[in-house]
Design goal:
- 2 copies of one chain form a homodimer.
- By secondary structure, chain A is an alpha/beta fold.
- Helices cover 41% and strands 21% of the residues of chain A.
- In chain A, the strands form 2 sheets. In chain A, strands 2-7-1-8-9 form a 5-stranded parallel sheet, sandwiched between helices. A 4-stranded mixed sheet of chain A has the order 4-3-6-5.
- The longest helix of chain A has 17 residues.
- The first copy, chain A, is globular and about 55 Å long.
- Chains A and B meet through β9 and α7 of A and β9 and α7 of B.
Chain lengths: 197, 197
Amino acid sequence: MQEKGRLIVISGPSGAGKSTVVFKAIRDRQDFCFSTSVTTRAPRPGEVDGREYFFIDRERYDQMVLQDELLEHAEYVSNGYGTPRFFVEQKLSEGMNVVLDIEIQGARQVREKMPEAVLVFVIPPSMEELRRRLVGRGTDSPEAIEGRLLRAREEYAEADFYDYLIVNDDADEAAADFSAIVRAEHLRAQDRLYLLK
Amino acid sequence: MQEKGRLIVISGPSGAGKSTVVFKAIRDRQDFCFSTSVTTRAPRPGEVDGREYFFIDRERYDQMVLQDELLEHAEYVSNGYGTPRFFVEQKLSEGMNVVLDIEIQGARQVREKMPEAVLVFVIPPSMEELRRRLVGRGTDSPEAIEGRLLRAREEYAEADFYDYLIVNDDADEAAADFSAIVRAEHLRAQDRLYLLK
């Protein structure tokens, strides 16, 4: 029996280090992939359909929304973006774990449409540390940094529906946390009752 | 904030290798202990009160049962055995994970009295392998082995309320499964919401 993969949603404030944690955890692993989104925006030079995004027109996008073919979707700068259910289901059925890096609103939609998804929220050890990291990146103005910190606070207040909470103090430890979560989720008895037959 | 430990109940058929898996997983770990049971049976030479068991008289035992001071209890050969809630709660509050190696009936009682306990069921890769292991131990008669296999089948049929199912094919992998489960359980968001304050 081919065991199904898990859909793993990962969220957290900008600067928490989500990507680092996930990349450390899944590097050298053949059983993980990232979800590929659909978008109505035009491909940029070098972007390949099915790699960066599935590029679709607005008509198809609206149809996917209406027919519940997207696990979550949102509009940014007049373009639609979404996570196609067919892609995720296909990968899961192949035994791949699918990682989906999205914001809280998207995670809430996924929870509703695919309750068995595993929701992981990554936070920095403190707001002071988050500020230090954002300053250290050197990409944001002081005002933008204050905005991000405010946004992080707002996110925290909404994040109580996640399944797991990782504090990214040390990235290796946080990656080990992530790996342990995925490993444990694969051991859930409710999905393995066939082993007791 | 001192994080509480987890009560981890481990069960599985005789010959599945539960003890080996747990010992491999928790050796060198200071944050694990085994639960110490109460019993009405007399101490044997060399047994120390509070180490092998807490030795208590029948009156005290019956009182503990009546006052719901035992997380689970059972009678064997006219003696009462049980897991004292005070001991477990004390260790958990010190941040220790408490491991409780008991049978399914006891696990069911624990689930009821302490729903947050983590229930892990360990099985061998197959009944054929279980038979091989029991024969290899050389401690049971052929009849006793058939009895154990029958009992294992019965246990499987009742084990659907466990949280996790570990297949002990390779003991190191199974120990890593056990460790991942405990690590993931410590990351559950519902127990860490204070981190979002």
